[in-house]
Amino acid sequence: MSGPFSFTLPPELQAKEPPERRGLARDQVRLMVIDRGTGQVAHTRFDHLGEFLRAGDLLVFNTSRTLPASLTGCGAQGGPCIEVRLAEHLPDDCWLALLLCQKGDPFSCGLRSGMAVSFGEGLIGTVEDRDERIPRLWRMRFSKSGTELVDLIYRLGRPIRYEYVSAPWDLDYYQTVYAQEPGSAEMPSAGRAFTWKLLFDLRRRGVETAYVLLHTSLSSYMDDELDAQRPASEEEYLVGERAAQKVNRAHERGARVIAVGTTVVRTLESVADESGKIQSGHGYTRLKITADHRLRAVDGLLTGLHEPEASHLDLLTAFLPAEKIEQAYCEAVERKYLWHEFGDLNLIT
Amino acid sequence: MKRLEGKHILITGASQGLGRRLAIDFAREGAGGIAITARNVEALGEVRDRVREAASATRVVVIGADLSRQEEIERVVATTLSEFGGRLDALVNNASALGPTPMPYLLDYPLEDFRGVIEVNLIAPYLLIKKALPAMVESGGSIINVTSDAGRIGYPGWGAYGISKFGIEGMSQTWAAELEDSGVRVNWVDPGEMNTAMHRAAEPEEDPSEWADPADVTEVFIYLASDQSRDVSGQRFQAQEENWGRANEDAASE
Fold this sequence. Notes:
Chain A is α/β, with parallel strands linked by helices.
């Protein structure tokens, strides 16, 4: 399955380190703004975001906190050593996890159901079945649960790190400033550039804010063939009464609802009825948003720049025709925007 | 109705002394959940049992942590917010390290000890506020920093501890100013002389029976954690003074 358009991402445009380690403040990354109405593209810096927002606009943030979701353990009885990337916490208290062998081919060290993996500090994970939809994921049941397990994940884990990231940066670099409840496998990175000063400044200008929760799953299963299929993962979300009211009121007064991140688009579109009215609620979503999806709850999107194969690129086509995005992405490549979680941003309004 | 009904509160340095007493008294005032943290997990377990005796409905989370280590602070906040569903109403920055005893003059203060005290007493509260803030911004919240007389007067021998408390006083003012109108209030409390293990270690020659019991100073903390103080920010309180040391305020009579 190919993306909505193709482009080549030069390797030097992959952000290898957080902006703070490139001599920039968190909110000094670049911002490409695409106007949905005119198709015009503007280039600015993220801390000028307010110039593209109006009083009354509602920014909706995902408050999920990034877990140090990469754990390393070895078979309890001499089995292989593996990296376990936690993908999703399931309602029955199991986790879906990507298991990667530490030596040789990442999937060829005898991964099997029933295998017990010891992570240290008394934490054992038992491998159960493979996931039916995403076969690289396995169900894993841990010997601890609840707060005790969260505590141990923080003691033992590290942030998931992809090959383009130059160093094992601390977990703090993988958090938004407004992160609350832990649960995301990877940072909901569209909001990474916000600082409190910018948030308070926007509030003073009359821009409103609302907060929802969606715990992100993995963006890659380290399997090119599977990743190319872009299977929609199932993710847990929570929309509180207050956020639902704010979104509905914004619609009633004709204001724009701007999602900070594709996770927020997914969340709000999952709980919107035909008329675009939002219901508060807690659940799991598999909603896959593509060009065929009629946006009901969201008018605009702040997001990162996405890879040619990423499912997020499909999602953008719900906002803009593919050729418009392609044109903007060509400009972004020409202007040497940076991609990925530590990179530059794109506002579509 | 109890004053802290349903509130979720994180208290550092809760294994003994003032922190321990705050956990118990907050629970008595109806707190919905209390996260207690300190290095001594065994002592925290005892505090948890006492809290449960005082108020069985209060959820208690025990988090063993060394606040001198930055990554432990992320874990403390994440674990707390995981247990409380992302909600936090109050943070009490009570943990502090005294440094070496007998307390050396600054001239003789080992640099490593100096750094250690600053890490626990100043940097840890800074990071805890920073990380707890998101859970408070939407619904409002209260940050209470514990200070000391030694944060206003440079007593000989109080070295890094006193300097860290000078820092807490300034940091509290700056936080309060930056968070003005945010819904998050920041106040700081000098509990006065208390009969605690730390104070006995600091002044072994003094008679501890003349000092207050921690239970005698918790009222101001309950006030600051409660909605009674929702419009109060940027103020210094003295727990053992009349009107809590505030000349023109009537909070103590509320």
